[in-house]
């Protein structure tokens, strides 16, 4: 069975050794507290935000803080998934590829994106803007080789000073060879990465100390990396015992990356929190790539997870590089697929906003030392998918229609669909190469004039883009250009 893209990428660096000359060894981390007595994990927290999650892939902390204030909060995004904040290996000889960040060296908050103070300031700024922070949590493994970390920590494989020693890792010291063998998938090494013994009380308490440190800074949740490489009970024990998010009385939101296959189902992990539904990416991305949208009315029936436990996406940092059915490089087809995801009532949508690349291993824009350059949507090196007009407008649509049922489905049997979300919103998507000319659609919207949020917004009592009238019987008549769309919602209705 083929390995995930991350696994294939890490294989290139699994034997890399970074010179430690001149490096200073980081201070030893404090001993983690003794693990508490095992107890039943509380019920997993539901997604606590109305707006979508956006993965700001490899963005530095200072840049995310600014983007929360200027764009993400005002546009209605609910949460940002940030790249792993812990100290990671430095693969200087590999030109600092993106995947080095998924090889922890210690749990110090010192990465190529910034230090602890910058991370805390970013969390505070985003929370103040109404945007929660979810950290990408790497708890299955540590770095693959002897090297130096982003905070200066020198280490050997299986020996991470002040944190883990040889006894804290599984005895299977070889790569996973048979992905149909569940025990091997969970206990052997993912292309050389030191596989932590997550059944160990010590390992669990060390990881909880790290995650609770992030929570103490205001982090509201976690995306858990590589979950199928850990037993469900280990994941539940680690994340089920975390602290409440300060000032909320709520447990952190958890969603788990599970690339399901014959040996591992997504449902095995649903008791711990939400789970990524990779089948959605395949079906919806393929439909918009080929322009065959009519069958998407029943897409939820083809999924393995119930809507309330599924996290869905058109692409993420792995699929962009390994299964690029649709990515930012596909233009409007990609934008419309994301618009569908943000409008259709299935799952919690997750977007991505990253950097431009041709080499799938390439790291983000950086200086000569590998420190990530400031991210800005005015810099073409950063793609800023979240700021594209269709996607940015549909973030607010998604927030506005939460909880409203699917209504008034229409399709032409091919590449044109329209549907409503009760009396809260209505969307028309045209993936054909010809325009829809003055087509009438039945909606459940109240009568009035609405701004088309795919082409603009409601500002100061007027529409910056198109506007559409809905009559007293709920009908609207509009034209939709080729490969375009129209979206109306109650929050963008003229008074």
TrEMBL record:
Its cofactor is Ca(2+). SUPFAM superfamilies: (Trans)glycosidases, Glycosyl hydrolase domain. It is an enzyme of class 3 (hydrolase). It catalyses: Endohydrolysis of (1->4)-alpha-D-glucosidic linkages in polysaccharides containing three or more (1->4)-alpha-linked D-glucose units. Residues 407-493 form the Alpha-amylase C-terminal domain. Its EC number is 3.2.1.1. Belongs to the glycosyl hydrolase 13 family. Keywords: Calcium, Carbohydrate metabolism, Glycosidase, Hydrolase, Metal-binding, Signal. The keyword ATP-binding does not apply. Residues 1-20 form the signal peptide. Residues 51-398 form the Glycosyl hydrolase family 13 catalytic domain. This is Alpha-amylase. CDD domains: AmyAc_bac_euk_AmyA (cd11317). Gene3D superfamilies: Glycosidases (3.20.20.80), Golgi alpha-mannosidase II (2.60.40.1180).
